[in-house]
Amino acid sequence: MTGRIAFQGELGAYSHEAAARTHPELEPLPCRTFEAVIDAMRDRQAELAMLPVENSTYGRVADIHRLLPESGLHIVDETFLRVHINLLAVHGASLSDIKRAHSHLVLLPQCAGFLSEHGIEGRVSPDNARAARDVAEAGEKADAALASELAAQVYGLDILARNIEDEDHNTTRFLIMSREPDLGRRGDTGMMTTFVFKVRNIPAALYKAMGGFATNGVNMTKLESYMVDGSFSATQFYADIEGHPDDPNVALALDELRYFTSELKILGVYPAAPERR
To answer: Is 79 considered catalytic here?
Structure first.
């Protein structure tokens, strides 16, 4: 495959790192927002999109669940990226020079211990890769960025300290999106199916809808609800299950689900990432 893979953020972002690891043959296409990523796919500016969906430290990524059902895109793979946070500075700077560390609001608390130990003030930046770019352009020895090793390579910065995150389990799950579904594959470590649904307005509808997965032995690894169109009475559910819709037990479970739902949309059928095992 030749072409581009779109992601949200600037060059050097963790989404860029995930894209480079999974599809090094594709040129990275940075986009300002998640909506811009989807638009790039619709306009055929890219062949694939890399979208973060959840993180082990701070939970689900805002807006993704809302955007995916209406995007017209299909999940064709997943990947997990261990997020290593590094302290990046301009050439010639040492750790003792650093007074301020710039990064995304989400990353700063994850390095609170390191920053406190070294007397470094955290400063909020719109994006960790943007922070790295700004530090490189400013050229100040007192300023550093908290970002990926890839960002250091992209912007020509030195890594003064590696893997400074407080927790050693910080991992982000990404979904790889395509314009067309790919239902023919069978993964070596199993298959995943992702879908969204709305239950019918009848008593215990959600309880009854979920019963089919239990009775048919289908493992549901994720079930999340979120508001639709700002209404407190309209709820949509996002779910991940193990298996393929063609598997007899999965087919039976989905048939039962359809009986109790007013809307069901499969977002993707894809091989389970090896990290799940």
So the answer is: no
- CATH topology (fold) of 191-276: Alpha-Beta Plaits (3.30.70)
Domains in the chain: boundaries: 4-82+170-178, 86-161, 191-276
Is the domain 86-161 a CATH 2.60.40.3580 member?
no
Question: What's the CATH class of domain 4-82+170-178?
Answer: alpha beta
Per-position pLDDT tens, the chain of length 277: 459 999 999 999 999 999 999 999 999 999 999 999 999 999 999 999 999 999 888 778 877 888 999 999 999 999 999 999 999 999 999 999 999 999 999 899 999 999 999 999 999 999 999 999 999 999 999 999 999 999 999 999 999 999 999 988 889 999 999 999 988 888 788 999 999 998 887 778 888 889 999 999 999 999 998 877 666 666 789 999 999 999 999 999 999 999 989 899 999 999 999 988 7
Q: Are 130 and 32 in contact (CB under 8 A)?
A: no
Of the candidates 34, 174, 237, 260, the residue annotated as catalytic is: 174
- Catalytic-labelled residue, pool 172, 193, 194, 261: 172
Q: Is 174 a catalytic residue?
A: yes
* pTM for the model: 0.91
